[in-house]
Amino acid sequence: MSINSLQERPSREEATVTQEEAREAVFRTEGLNLWYGNTQALHNIELDQRANEVTAIIGPSGCGKSTYIKTLNRMVQMNPIVKVTGKVYYRDQNIFDRKFPVEELRTRVGMVFQKPNPFPKTIFENVAYGPKIHGIRNKKLLAEIVEESLKGAAIWEEVKDRLQENAFGLSGGQQQRLCIARCLAIEPDVILMDEPTSALDPKSTLKVEELVQQLKSKYSIMIVTHNMQQAARISDRTAFFLNGEVIEFDETDKIFSNPSDKRTEDYITGRFG
Amino acid sequence: MAQSVSEMIREKRKSSKRQKLEKLVPGLLFAAASVSVLTTVGILLTLVVETFMFFTEVPFSQFFFSTEMQPLNRSEPTFSILPLLSATLLSTVIAMLVAIPIGLTTAVYLSEYATDRARRVLKPIVEVLAGIPTIVYGFFAFTFVTPVLQNIIPILDRTNILSPGIVMGIMIIPMVASLSEDALSSVPLSMREGAMAFGATKFETTVRVVIPAAISGIIASFVLGISRAIGETMIVTIASGSNKNLTFDITQSMQTMTAYIVEVTSGDAGAGTTAYYSLYAVAITLFVFTLAMNMLAKYISKRYREEY
Amino acid sequence: MEQNYINQEEVSRRIPGRLAVNKVVRGLFLTSTLFGLVVLAILLYDVITDSWGWIDWQFLTSVMSFNEEAAGIIGAISGTLWLMLIVGPVTMIIGVATAIYLEEYVKEGRVRTFFETNVANLAGVPSIVFGLLGLTVFVRLMNMGSVVLAGGLTMSLLVLPIVIVSAQESLRAVPSYLREASFGMGATRWQTIRSVVLPAALPSILTGMILAMSRAIGETAPLIALGIPALLIPLPSGLFDSFTVLPVQVYYWTIDAALNQNYASLAAATIVVLLVLMFILNSAAILIRNKFQQRF
């Protein structure tokens, strides 16, 4: 498989498109509990992320949705007071297994953050950062990866003439797409997005949403969002979190048209949150 | 290219070189961090061991309770810290008599009265005073302040404790001013507004409300200033001479603890002599005093930190 | 029953007095603030007039001499430069490494409190005590003598706490989302520090370093305690050569000033050179800070 196929990686979709249920689970969460010190933030979470699907996680502030997504690449454990029980499998490997290095997990599972967070480096260096730290030094190859990743994040046309400029010169929306490109450069399997559009204007938000739709064919995406319209627009399945619990997890259409839990209905109809 | 990026990454990951580096780095950093701990240990060990040697030769009581300090007397040297202590005490008191009123009022002016523009100009200038090397202050005390004072106080000796005390105070002004100003400006505006709303003038607000609210930070700045004055060396070495008689006459030459250390180390007291060991006994006293002051300052600012 | 506790007339009558007090006090406080300024001006004026006519090419490039007219400070200048050559790299490496250890590896807890308390206490130890440490350990125990290396190491230990604290502040100013971005891509801790955190903190670290150097070259007491001689010595050409530095030179000339007014002039001239050097360092620090100020 060549580097150029980064965009047209043959997806499993073709084989399984008819049988939704047969799609393999990329992430399987079983009985996950999480504490910040003595405060329990997540209660017995059970959730599957399937390949080539977009899962949206919605819920009011403080419901644990960001905490959950940050557990999947173990960023949450950078806070020393965090304690975790239960299991999360990434493609059948328990991510909490001591033999599974966290760095390896994170090369397979990319993350896009709430606030665009480019490095104070050039646009090129931002995208090349991941491949470089993982040992890719060949200049020609790096240039190719950077181009493909920027194309993948639909920002190539805007920045191709200014790759050597500081990334801080970009607009907020461009910065966020740059961060997505940076994430694509290490060819992750899953992309976690933690409210990626909350700091963006509506136009940039739309661009990122379109991008998520395109990326779906090659990546599995989990996106935390405050914005219910956004969840309805772009996700295949939606999980509703409340007070650290999964209240309901189902097809997005079902959640928004016919939720089975009263609390979900209250939330999506705007009665609280 | 036959491989995808992710495959290449997976392959590179296997190299153990990086893993080793990752394990090695914290160790190296810890070693670096230990240098400062070893410095403390080195200081304590040096002072304690050599002081112990000193007290095998000189009785404890002589050092702390006699008043005769004649370390270089060939036939019968005597050692007493009291003359050095009194000199240190006097120079510190004089310095604080200068530094506290001027430092505190400067802080009040900068934090309460000055406009933003005035503060931006004045504050850095006041802080330049803190950056001037102490040797320069020593030169200033000896060649300028003492002659000027001699015109006013004719009996003033060419070396005396008054002039270096004053100059030391000037040196400490920025320290008191800037720490006190930090304390004053962290008093919330609402407290000032509360006082001014019922007609208090700025001065009344400052004295009745702002200063009491910031008092722990202000006092801590005084204590740190005292610690600084006790440990200051070059100004007193140059301008207060080396008279080791116990006296409280500030117009006379006196030798502080720090100046004594300089005199003995730069003189010809060979290693192993009692005079040499006396250095460490004096230094440990100095060390204990400054450490106590620094800890007191920390305690005050912590213990009485106002919760706004 | 109608009773006024506050007599409005009385209040009004007192107001002008209170306002006058406020005005007078304001003037007093301003005077006191200006006092520092005035002293600074007098000090500089004194030093400059004393040195007038003494600073010339001959003074800057000649070695020490007992003949005042021929005396120069090239030895002290080169000694000061040698000192910087040691203090710079030593404190940079140890200080920044310590700061990285405390900020990026230990984070919270007792270990960090222990190290930080230690650094804070060291920063308050009088410089003369560091001189005694250097005298005991480097000069005598290690038998170096009062050479460049002994002086450099002593001075490094003295300014190390300053460098550590300022480097810690620089690292703390690097926003955590940059670290997160790097960790999120599978970078290890050291990779993150080396390629993201350090480059972002570097200008600020350098600024702190230069200010610490400026402090080091003005320090006198520890070097005098090491037994740096006031003799005619050849220019140092290596780590194990005898040396003197500008402030020590000032010291010996100042204490001889009572004997001969020319020595006061030589001391003043040396002070001017020292202050100019410090001014250059401080300006460099400010320039770096302004030029590379990151907007995160």
UniProtKB/TrEMBL annotation, chain A:
GO terms for molecular function: ATP binding; ATP hydrolysis activity; phosphate transmembrane transporter activity. Keywords: ATP-binding, Nucleotide-binding, Transport. GO terms for cellular component: membrane. InterPro entries: AAA+_ATPase (IPR003593), ABC_transporter-like_ATP-bd (IPR003439), ABC_transporter-like_CS (IPR017871), P-loop_NTPase (IPR027417), PstB-like (IPR005670). Residues 9-21 have a biased composition (Basic and acidic residues). SMART domains: AAA (SM00382). Residues 27-268 form the ABC transporter domain. One of its GO terms (biological process) is phosphate ion transmembrane transport. Residues 1-21 are annotated as: Disordered. Coiled coil: none annotated. It holds the Pfam family ABC_tran. CDD domains: ABC_PstB_phosphate_transporter. This is Phosphate transport system ATP-binding protein. It comes from Alkalicoccus daliensis.
UniProtKB/TrEMBL annotation, chain B:
It is a multi-pass membrane protein. Residues 85-297 form the ABC transmembrane type-1 domain. It is found in: Cell membrane; Membrane. CDD domains: TM_PBP2 (cd06261). Its main location: membrane. The keyword Transmembrane applies. Pfam families: BPD_transp_1. GO terms for biological process: phosphate ion transport. GO terms for cellular component: plasma membrane. InterPro entries: MetI-like (IPR000515), MetI-like_sf (IPR035906), Phosphate_PstC (IPR011864). It comes from the Bacteria. GO terms for molecular function: phosphate transmembrane transporter activity. The chain crosses the membrane at residues 21-49, 81-104, 125-149, 161-184, 205-226, 275-297. The keyword Membrane applies. Coiled coil: none annotated. Keywords: Cell membrane, Membrane, Phosphate transport, Transmembrane, Transmembrane helix, Transport. Belongs to the binding-protein-dependent transport system permease family. CysTW subfamily. Part of the binding-protein-dependent transport system for phosphate; probably responsible for the translocation of the substrate across the membrane. This is Phosphate transport system permease protein. It comes from Alkalicoccus daliensis.
TrEMBL record, chain C:
It comes from Alkalicoccus daliensis. The chain crosses the membrane at residues 24-45, 81-102, 122-141, 148-167, 192-211, 263-288. Gene3D superfamilies: MetI-like (1.10.3720.10). GO terms for cellular component: plasma membrane. It is a multi-pass membrane protein. One of its GO terms (molecular function) is phosphate transmembrane transporter activity. Belongs to the binding-protein-dependent transport system permease family. CysTW subfamily. This is Phosphate transport system permease protein PstA. It is found in: Cell membrane.
